Model the fold of this input.
Amino acid sequence: MNRKILEPKYGRLLDDFRVGDVYHHPWEVTIDDGMLAMFAASFLDPNPLYSSTRFARDLGFRDRVVHPLVMLNLALSFTVHDVSEQAIAHLAYIDLKFPNAAYSRDTLSVYSEILGIRLSESKRDRGVVHLRTTAVNQNGLVLLIFERKALVPVGKLAGRAHPVQPAAEGLTPRPLSTSSEAVALPPELVTEIKTPQWPGRPIGSYRDFDRGDTILHTLGHTVGESEHMQLTILTRNSHPLHFDEVYCRDRSFAKTRVVEGGLVFAWAASLASRDTTANALWDLGYDKGSHPAPVLSGDTLYAASQVLDKREHGAQTGIVRFKLVGVKNETPASLLRRGVDLFDGKFEQKVFEIEREVLLALRS
Amino acid sequence: MNRKILEPKYGRLLDDFRVGDVYHHPWEVTIDDGMLAMFAASFLDPNPLYSSTRFARDLGFRDRVVHPLVMLNLALSFTVHDVSEQAIAHLAYIDLKFPNAAYSRDTLSVYSEILGIRLSESKRDRGVVHLRTTAVNQNGLVLLIFERKALVPVGKLAGRAHPVQPAAEGLTPRPLSTSSEAVALPPELVTEIKTPQWPGRPIGSYRDFDRGDTILHTLGHTVGESEHMQLTILTRNSHPLHFDEVYCRDRSFAKTRVVEGGLVFAWAASLASRDTTANALWDLGYDKGSHPAPVLSGDTLYAASQVLDKREHGAQTGIVRFKLVGVKNETPASLLRRGVDLFDGKFEQKVFEIEREVLLALRS
Amino acid sequence: MNRKILEPKYGRLLDDFRVGDVYHHPWEVTIDDGMLAMFAASFLDPNPLYSSTRFARDLGFRDRVVHPLVMLNLALSFTVHDVSEQAIAHLAYIDLKFPNAAYSRDTLSVYSEILGIRLSESKRDRGVVHLRTTAVNQNGLVLLIFERKALVPVGKLAGRAHPVQPAAEGLTPRPLSTSSEAVALPPELVTEIKTPQWPGRPIGSYRDFDRGDTILHTLGHTVGESEHMQLTILTRNSHPLHFDEVYCRDRSFAKTRVVEGGLVFAWAASLASRDTTANALWDLGYDKGSHPAPVLSGDTLYAASQVLDKREHGAQTGIVRFKLVGVKNETPASLLRRGVDLFDGKFEQKVFEIEREVLLALRS
Done:
């Protein structure tokens, strides 16, 4: 008998990737109300589109819509097993869009295509992988699509346990654009929009935002240790950096567990939500996102937004473009008082930045 | 271009309130099984009315009933955005009733009316706001109604971002009383009650309780850091005292995060549940509740009950009136051995007290 | 008036048990998607039978199947109130089987029969209780059956508050065997099995495992404090060892809270799942399980598997028998390098061991 000792490994090193490869990530997960509650327990967001079946139905959806940042966290985490379980860092979010609404009890599948591989010029032991990730429901409808870049060590992974991939047949995503203007709007919002009554709603229609406005959000959130690990595992992120303290003692750049980036993204957006997107009809997309500094359990996160631009969109709605930043352990108001350039500056408290566009009713 | 720097604030200071004002709180939330599971993961309660669809249906309800203290926590937390996000403390629970059953997938809306405003006589920089809060489902049916008092600093809040409130038209709650005897019973329990079989149920019918009995509950619960923050956010409580450590370092009376009062209430009730309400048919109401001392993450909570009174109610059921107290970091048995007056005394370990009435079958 | 002071206690001491007694545990719980999400947030498992409605339906089930280790944790925890709330330790898992699939919204009831009572020969103040526990759904269908042994102090429990048990009429479980070969297979898998397509699935059909193979699983999991307490309460485990720090300071062998054994079991299995059971069609059973050392919050768990045996089962499937071990705070690879006998040795890092059989398709 040939007694083998195996130590199966997942993810890939730089030389394991080839441009054009498509990975079907193994997690196939039915989204459920439990998942939505666990996200609602960390990310405060008043927009009833995501929390109220009554409101969402009145707006034309068949149920409350799964929060876009639940979707981003699921899709990003699903890719780790194949793409970034050996990665050093997540570098960038690019052109993230939500072309269709996701609902509880949809079953989510995710696949990624390798768009580019580039050796680092400054550090020759690592390189950048550029990929496009697509999430589809049980009917093949695209729920989310985005690109990202990850920093990966060079080499080929010994003990890699992935099966040979089947051909990517039948996996071409359906055309994304559902609107003639190429704005990623779900079909429910392409026709006339009748915003449902919502007593008590916070301020925030299109006309409330002016180009150049800075909004210092006052809410903060101290990250709990169990909290961030549970959300990481719930979304099927398999990188030990987030939940294996023994691994992290030797191999984490922070010498301890680091909070998963998609969660930091979701915290920044949720801390801004009451002042910006409480009345948003749709998250049209995110772009140019990155994590300049890590977040650890016990850090307190804050957010600030700047209105970059706005334009009317049809007779009823307008699009506002925000820059969103996340900072840690000091309020945006305090940083600003100290002369920090919140939106364009580099400073140690900055943990996240991204640009986003949201669709808002012209008036409330 | 007029580049503004905004720092939107929520809640109100004493001079922002007017008697008769009605606030429609912005959170509109569909209750779901995820929310129920997260509460079940912190609050042990054997009563199958809240956990078993089989039992609840046999008793005449259409599904298991959402636990009354889930409802209290949701309704209380929903009010914070408008009422108490700037408050110093929550002072009192008054006349809390549950006139109708709530179910998973009901959509909850909450509004509050200001009943009174009073400047503190001892400390002139603060005052007491007295309000009545009503929670309704998507059909306008009243699920919960209660009054509370909060301690609020004097002044008007600069940067207050609430929209002007629409008129409170159509918001008069339906009459509460569904029984000729003015006991807040849901319609399902007004007719003849056939208690379903429940193998293995703990002791606790009407005849098992005698006036004057003291029950020292042995179960304790150490509060987890992530646990209490997640439940606070899940219920949409927006007061930074509970989840923003940077805010708390300067502005919390405890210099750190403080556990939300509604959760302490729920822990006291759940720690008592196995010995008192395992067989309760309905929580008829709570009154005269307060939090004499704060609870921090890591504190261990215990509870004790005293039978204040009992009376028969119809041919099948009786009503038992309990005093319920919550204490921290020492068992009620130990406190009693040291001569502490658990129910009427003041002592540093006492974190909660309230009176409650429950409907019980006369015999099991 | 006779004012009594009561301190109701639960569980039993050795002399409270009689062979043949049947306890109907008081918890009657409808399994829900919230419960599944909370387990999914701690126990990473790629098998789509448990996560994907699409996959489970294509395999012949009516919905995704509740994970067997959710079922084990519920059933084990339900017994604590009657059996082991006063116990010193949980000693052994014996002959654990899952004869039928459980689904979300099934209502679970659990009862236990005392099979044996034996005084310890070395320490005369304690003894071993041997019981068989059965979990049934609302239709009386057996979902899980297992035996276990617990170490209990001698004596009779003063203040024991359990009601006198009704006769065990009508509680004989239905015959377990649904297959002529006495393998505990649910009806859905007794006929021809058509394994659904699953793009991206990890390696792991019958032919991938060879007798004697050792698999060192690389994933670890650091146990969160809130995380393990929430899962303990969610499953209705009422032993204060797991969530009452004041109790534990005096009465825990570890002087602090100890992670519930069923959770350690589930972590070991989940950490092994990507390399062993990602493609399993059914968990045929576990046997000879024990916890040689305790796990505390903050410990990091790892797992290793050994292929003990394999045999074909019909034309399409085979059965692989694994030994599964769980270790803490050092990787299995590191322990092996230091010469530790992972599977048959005794060493301080070993926190769990068990044997298991899984049904696998012959080829993928």
Remarks:
- The first strand of chain C starts at residue 5 and ends at 6.
- Chain C has a mean pLDDT of 94.
- Residues 47 and 278 of chain C are 4 Å apart (CA to CA).
